[in-house]
Design brief:
The protein has helices spanning 13-18, 38-53, 84-100, 111-117, 120-127, 150-160, 162-170, 189-201, 215-227, 231-260, 274-290, 297-300, 304-307, 320-327, 342-348; strands at residues 29-30, 61-69, 105-109, 133-137, 177-178, 205-206, 211-212, 266-271, 293-294, 330-331. By secondary structure, it is an alpha/beta fold. Strands 2, 3, 4, 7, 8 and 9 form a 6-stranded parallel beta sheet that branches. Residues 1-55 have low confidence and may be disordered. The structure holds zinc ion.
């Protein structure tokens, strides 16, 4: 089992730097034979983009997803365990904001965290089955699939769905989505093939994500400020987080459009923690100000970009824009992605 005290599920900045996010130098371009003239290449690019969009003009949209329910910091080792009241409060404020903004959302549950939280977890998860809401499976113990064989991954999936499936069934809803911890979607073609077959057999769709805000990095700093009753620092961290989120929304929209030739429905990756409980209203407002309408994850992943199976495999957890770039041999300049400010990183260490 991988300890939760470090990175959570996102494609972390450090993982990006080490891996697939492939911060290659140079401008974005399609890889085409040198014999092709630029004009012919442009025609091919437009045909490709038109094929993926189906020639349809799309409205901008985003699906909101939360990982590590009932709470990202529940069940971790260490003395900073959130209280049951704090966990209830964080979920209640997130759900209230989603309701106010009429934003559909899905919460991915870690079964071991639900058990660590105790009986109150059932009430919290039930609240996530209300209007426009649903739950997904985020495995039993938040284990890293890179460290497991297929049998181990199957156990994590099957054991991870117990409370979630029961809660959804009571609400008359189906369990459909699975998201692997750290967005590690297995690291070899052989495992990828086996996992695709296993997920299909168990009735799951693998959840994608396209916007990463490094919210675990900001949350570590935020938790320190709150622990020290430093309200001024907490305010500065929240402000920096919203600014970084705004930059990341724009960055990934641009990345996806350059890779695919159009902007597919975005999928926002967040975690249930105190930072997001305090910042969610601001995050939802950022989307409303920049245009995208809120849709369900199911509707987002009905887009052609998500329906086309990925052939690229990696041991890291990059956002889908980077994966689409690899699959389509589109060279990108990942160095353009902003990192969280250094003072945030060092303050949270
Ligand atoms: Zn996670």
């Amino acid at each position: 089992m991988v300890k939760e005290t470090g990175l959570h599920c996102a494609c972390s900045t450090r993982q990006n730097l080490a891996g697939i996010c492939a911060r290659t130098a140079g401008t974005i371009r399609r890889c085409i034979p040198l014999a092709f003239t630029p004009w012919i290449a442009l025609v091919f690019f437009l045909i490709d983009a038109h094929a993926e969009t189906g020639g349809v003009t799309r409205e901008k949209s985003v699906a909101i997803t939360f990982d590590d329910l009932p709470h990202a910091n529940a069940g971790d080792d260490g003395a900073d365990q959130p209280s049951a009241q704090s966990i209830q409060d964080a979920n209640a404020r997130i759900l209230a904001a989603l309701g106010d903004h009429k934003a559909p959302a899905i919460g991915f549950v870690v079964e071991s965290k639900a058990r660590a939280v105790g009986p109150v977890a059932k009430d919290i998860l039930k609240d996530w089955t209300g209007p426009r809401l649903t739950l997904g499976n985020h495995t039993f113990s938040h284990a890293d699939t890179n460290t497991l064989d297929i049998a181990g991954i199957k156990r994590e999936i099957v054991d991870g769905e117990k409370t979630t499936r029961r809660t959804l069934k009571a609400a008359g809803k189906d369990l459909r989505f699975l998201r692997f911890p750290y967005n590690h979607t297995v690291d070899t073609p052989e495992k990828q093939k086996a996992i695709a077959a296993l997920a299909a057999k168990l009735g799951y769709t693998i959840a994608a994500s396209t916007i990463d805000t490094s919210n675990d990095v900001f949350d570590r700093a935020y938790e320190r400020a709150l622990a020290e009753n430093d309200t001024e620092a907490a305010h500065r961290i929240r402000t920096a987080y919203l600014m970084h989120t705004q930059q990341q929304i724009a960055y990934y929209a641009d990345l996806n459009e350059q890779v695919l030739g159009y902007e597919p429905p975005a999928i926002m990756l967040l975690h249930v923690n105190r930072l997001n409980a305090d910042a969610i209203k601001g995050i939802l407002s950022l989307f409303e100000e920049s245009g995208p309408g809120f849709i369900t994850l199911e509707k987002a992943q009905a887009d052609a970009a998500y329906r086309r199976p990925l052939s690229y495999t990696t041991k890291y957890g990059p956002m889908w824009g980077y994966r689409w770039a690899k699959d389509r041999s589109v060279r990108i300049d990942g160095s353009l992605e902003r990192e969280p400010p250094e003072w945030i990183v060092s303050y949270g260490e």
